[in-house]
Amino acid sequence: MTVRGIRGSFFDFIDDPWKHVGDEEASARFLADGLLVVDDGIIVSFGPYSDRAGEYADLEITHIEHRIITPGFIDGHIHFPQTRVLGAFGEQLLPWLQKWVFPEEARYADRQYAKDGAVRFFDNLLASGTTTVQAFTSTAPVCTEELFEEASRRNMRVISGLTGIDTNAPDYFVDTADAFYADSKTLIEKYHNVGRNLYAITPRFAFGASPELLERCAQLKTEHPDAWVHTHISENPAEIRGVGVVHPGADDYLAVYEKYNLVGPKFTGGHAVWLSNSEYKRLHDAEASVTFCPNSNLFLGSGMFRLGKATDPDQRVRMTFGTDMGGGNRFSMLAVLDGAYKVGMINNTLLDGSIDPSLKDAAEAERNKLSAYRAFWSITLGGAEGLYIDDRVGSFDVGKEADFVALDWTQGPPGADWHSTLIADGGDPVTMDDAANMLFGIMIVGDDRAVDQTWVMGERAYQKA
Amino acid sequence: MTVRGIRGSFFDFIDDPWKHVGDEEASARFLADGLLVVDDGIIVSFGPYSDRAGEYADLEITHIEHRIITPGFIDGHIHFPQTRVLGAFGEQLLPWLQKWVFPEEARYADRQYAKDGAVRFFDNLLASGTTTVQAFTSTAPVCTEELFEEASRRNMRVISGLTGIDTNAPDYFVDTADAFYADSKTLIEKYHNVGRNLYAITPRFAFGASPELLERCAQLKTEHPDAWVHTHISENPAEIRGVGVVHPGADDYLAVYEKYNLVGPKFTGGHAVWLSNSEYKRLHDAEASVTFCPNSNLFLGSGMFRLGKATDPDQRVRMTFGTDMGGGNRFSMLAVLDGAYKVGMINNTLLDGSIDPSLKDAAEAERNKLSAYRAFWSITLGGAEGLYIDDRVGSFDVGKEADFVALDWTQGPPGADWHSTLIADGGDPVTMDDAANMLFGIMIVGDDRAVDQTWVMGERAYQKA
After folding, report:
1. What is the predicted pLDDT for the residue at A1?
2. What architecture is the B73-386 domain classified under in CATH?
3. Distance CA B244, CA B242 (A)
4. Domain Amidohydrolase-related: where (chains A, B) (predicted)?
């Protein structure tokens, strides 16, 4: 048993800031000088250093100075085998898949390529401050295996699963419903709840899943009710029309997944750009989740996620934020926050009634504004709630796994250093307001260069050179 | 006289790539192994190394290996005194100005603050690969003076001018029409065409300029017809409505500037998000320019610039790209290209007829796609044409000033290094297509970390640590 202490300035959340409009500080917790005590990777004590240090007289303490320590970032939607091809030119979703993505993903049928890719994938995640992902793989079981194997070696909490597609993909890439079922079964047995790995039944999207494939997903979910379900929903208008062709009886996109009893807790639909009011309401009622992937939605020209709609208290939908790397062109969840802020602001061009007073919705517009509180909650505790893993990660509560990031607010692209001196006279954060302003600077003026250290289960897994 | 040679892989433009749809290579020039010869800062020879090396037997040659060398980037719209306050939270244009910007800009009335700010401003620009800016200052003449003084010390080509506002700003910040006129005259005499400095008559925007102030601008332009004119136009819906209040007789935003004879060659209106068809046509006819500031338009929720409309061959408008730092949250023109690509793609969600087939405009949609050719042309030769300085900068033509950037395609955020190996087998670019693919990777997967060296007038002004 290794017991160790980490001393520093800690910032995490105890509640959803969208529930505290006008008093967001009530959702957060800031300890300018705190102590986190970790025993075998699990948080056993957390509080002000002055209160707690006495309890652990002989504790080995790592003092992380001049940093803000937050829980590790959670990426709710990322494509492992797109690591190398991120940021490919010039197409919207469907032709982009055909031209760039399927050929690269097909290479992950080779075990060595998948193994090497997994090393790079996790290296990139840790350098970005991301400690948990919900990840797509490919149709090749070895791709999923190598993802879980590398996650195990790094002791990282990962949700993933064989990514099924049996229609609207090239012959060299498609799976069959039966093979998908059999391979998924094998992988669930081998990896689900083994170490920190969790398994998600993963039909890629309704546009690429025949009724037979989704029938098999339903069977898997019945046989493994505690497994996750991860897919895409309503990303792109052409895709949505295509879903109507593959599943002719469905009233809308969500109805396809509902038909196969996939929509409930632990279900995540990525993107959710073009959801109807009815779909929002049904996702809310089902306690299911969606993922907001702003950089991908912009990069692929998919559309603008309605952040203020998803956070409507009358029908709040669980939510993660995601890179959607490689449709999103960055690995960094800080870059996701930059993009998410911009999408929220652009949505407000219409919602504040600027263009057409009849479109004015001041409450939704307010909810579109991504404050530092809303932003960092969304990629830590909020993301954990969206994935139904908030009993394990997402904050510094005792009993949770000690995944965290140390952020240096002075590091970033040209301009970040001087900007940071506007807050707290350039010193360390003294108040929660100081810390929140620094976090906003990190997500908007800074970038992944602010990630100084990333810790997994109480061990340092990345230190910036 | 210093004569020196720079050997390396050069990429620049000879024409507007939007004129070469389907054959963009015809607009560009790539020398995998080229030689640029500079005499006292001016390009005197440019061509393949094998052809030219013999002409200059005793030449001192700097060999820049494993880089793509492009002309220095041109930022058409940036606010010098917002260097420290970039990326301020939560407001659209008008309240953002009042809350964050005017208080910070007011500090530049202090000469020492302005001088220190200018050092940081140019340090940030050079680290971003930007060698020319068209910059706003503040209402304080010392702010403009210190910008030009620092530009002179660095021998950089800068267009700027005292930035007049006499209405819709706090008492501590407003100027008067008469003082603006007198101070502008003094500054024009002192700085215009002195060294590489060029002067722009700079009414901040019609919303903050009374008829009296614009009358004085007209007078200045009559008295100094070769001076530039730099302002804002149609950035934000609330601003546009406000212009109608300040200038009640005007038919539209552009008509205000037309009334005072400001619109013609060397006129730039920043943003131009909400221009009418008539305004586009009149800008075209006047041979005036607009600036596309995607990151600012997203960050402030201003709206989406119609790139495919501005590049309509029937009424092509001259165009620069700009950071609009600090409304734009990055100093880097590479980050501008990332944002510009995304704005173009989002525009196409409507234009490709996905949502409403009646909105389909395939030609405009095609023009919205920001290829590497269109992108790098826009921040080099295209930017120079937009500013009417293409006789001096923007390409490697003989007679131009030797401002350039050496880009390292392997450097960037997590993911950039492996991505770069997809092109040219990870080696140096051999063909123009290789180089263009690398440039696209730099702008989308990479960021300012790709800027390895920045040269001004044939001298290295920045070298990445």
Report:
1. 54
2. Alpha-Beta Barrel (3.20)
3. 5
4. 68-459
Q: What is the DSSP string of B354-419?
A: SS-GGG--HHHHHHH---HHHHHHHTTHHHHHHTT-TTTSSS--TTSB--EEEE-TT-SSTTHHHH
Residue of A nearest to B439 (CA): A89
Tell me which residue in B343, B419, B440 faces A89 most closely, judged by beta carbons. Answer: B440
Residue B428, token pair as written in the block? 């140096």
CATH class for the region spanning A3-72+394-463: mainly beta
Query: Which is more confident, A281 or A425?
Result: A281
Cα separation, A444 vs A441, in Å, equals: 5
Which tens digit of pLDDT belongs to each residue from A139-165?
999 999 999 999 999 999 999 999 999
B8's enclosing H/E stretch is strand B3-13
Nearest to A271 by CA among A283, A260, A262, A287: A283
Question: What are the chain A neighbours of B436 within 8 Å (beta carbons)?
Answer: none
User: Cα–Cα distance between B448 and B465 in angstroms, integer?
Assistant: 13
Confidence of residue B269 (pLDDT cuts 50, 70, 90): very high
Scanning B48-140, the segments in alpha helix (DSSP H) are 49-52, 93-96, 102-106, 111-127
- Chain B residues closer than 8 Å to A85 by CB: 419, 422
Q: Cβ contact (<8 Å) for B86 and A335?
A: no
Helices (H), B128-205: 141-154, 177-191
Mean residue pLDDT of chain B comes to: 96
- Cα(A324)–Cα(A77) distance, integer angstroms: 5
Query: How distant is the Cα of A117 from the closest Cα of chain B, in angstroms?
Result: 10
Angle at B188 between CA B184 and CA B189, to 5 degrees: 120
What are the start-end ranges of the E strands in B49-102? 60-71, 73-79
**Residue linked to tokens 């038909």:** A259
Q: Is B239 on the interface with A (CB under 8 A)?
A: no
From chain A residues 342-381, the ones with a CB under 8 A of any chain B CB are 342-349, 352, 354-355, 369, 371-372
Q: Could you tell me which residues are beta bridge partners of residue A75?
A: A133
How many other β-carbons are positioned within 10 Å of the β-carbon of residue B48?
13
CA distance B347 to A298: 10
A residues 397-426 near B, CB within 8 Å? 413-415, 418-419, 421-422
Number of CB pairs, chain A paired with chain B, less than 8 A apart:
153
**By the 8 A CB rule, do A159 and A199 touch?**
yes
**What pLDDT is stored for residue B425 in this prediction?**
86
Contact A180, A233 (CB under 8 A): no
Q: Which CATH class is domain B3-71+395-463?
A: mainly beta
Domain boundaries, chain B: 3-71+395-463, 73-386
Residue B353 pLDDT level (bands cut at 50, 70, 90):
confident
Could you tell me which of A87, A299, A447, A448 has the C-alpha nearest to residue B445?
A87
